[in-house]
């Protein structure tokens, strides 16, 4: 696990730290080729410079975000924002369905929209994979 992500997780309340650590470990396991770092103050994983997955602390939960998640067509992921992102929210580590998470991470690798170049394309997303 990237040191900055471990520090982010350790700064959370104990219940949230468990969720964050479980998510980070599974993302690292399923996307070993991904670059991980703190981006806009939250842990994010990138494939070829494109953000694919990350999580953040919200007021009452940990939000797992997949930048291209709406295209996964998966139960358990809800649309987030005005682009192609989808999310799952957790308040307890026991809520994490590892089989579903593994499936979602597999789709994060194979289904991507080009967020890396969204500014250059003036807000227009193009499908990569």
Protein described:
With 129 residues, this protein is an alpha+beta fold. It has one domain (3-110): Aspartate Aminotransferase, domain 1 (Alpha-Beta Complex), CATH 3.90.1150. It contains three helices and six strands, in the order ααββββββα. It has helices spanning 3-10, 14-30, 98-110; strands at 35-39, 42-47, 50-57, 62-66, 78-79, 86-90. It has a six-stranded antiparallel β-sheet, covered by helices on one side. α1 (3-10) runs antiparallel to α2 (14-30). The relative contact order is 0.16. The mean pLDDT is 91.
Write a concise keyword list for the protein shown above:
3 helices, Aspartate Aminotransferase, domain 1, 6-stranded antiparallel sheet, single chain, alpha+beta, 129 residues
- What value does the Rg take, in angstroms? 14 Å
**Parts with pLDDT < 50 across at least 5 consecutive residues:** none
CATH topology: Aspartate Aminotransferase, domain 1
Shape call: globular
The largest sheet has its strands arranged as: 1-2-3-4-6-5
How many domain regions? 1
Estimated structural class = alpha+beta
Main beta sheet = 6 strands, antiparallel
Helical content (DSSP H or I, runs of 4+): 25-40%
| Average residue pLDDT | 91
Task: Provide the CATH architecture.
Answer: Alpha-Beta Complex
Cα-to-Cα separation, first versus last residue:
26 Å
Order of helices and strands: HHEEEEEEH
How large is the share of residues in beta strands?
Answer: 15-25%
**Annotation, overall tally of beta strands:** 6
């Amino acid at each position: 696990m990237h040191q900055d992500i471990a520090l982010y997780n350790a700064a959370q309340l104990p219940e949230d730290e468990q969720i964050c650590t479980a998510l980070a470990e599974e993302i690292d396991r399923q996307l070993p080729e991904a670059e991980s770092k703190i981006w806009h103050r939250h842990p994010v994983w990138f494939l070829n410079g494109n953000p694919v997955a990350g999580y953040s602390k919200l007021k009452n939960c940990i939000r797992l975000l997949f930048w291209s998640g709406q295209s996964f067509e998966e139960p358990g992921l809800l649309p987030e924002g005005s682009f192609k992102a989808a999310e799952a929210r957790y308040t307890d580590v026991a809520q994490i369905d590892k089989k579903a998470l593994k499936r979602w991470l597999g789709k994060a690798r194979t289904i991507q929209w080009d967020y890396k170049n969204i500014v250059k394309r003036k807000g227009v997303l193009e499908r990569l994979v």
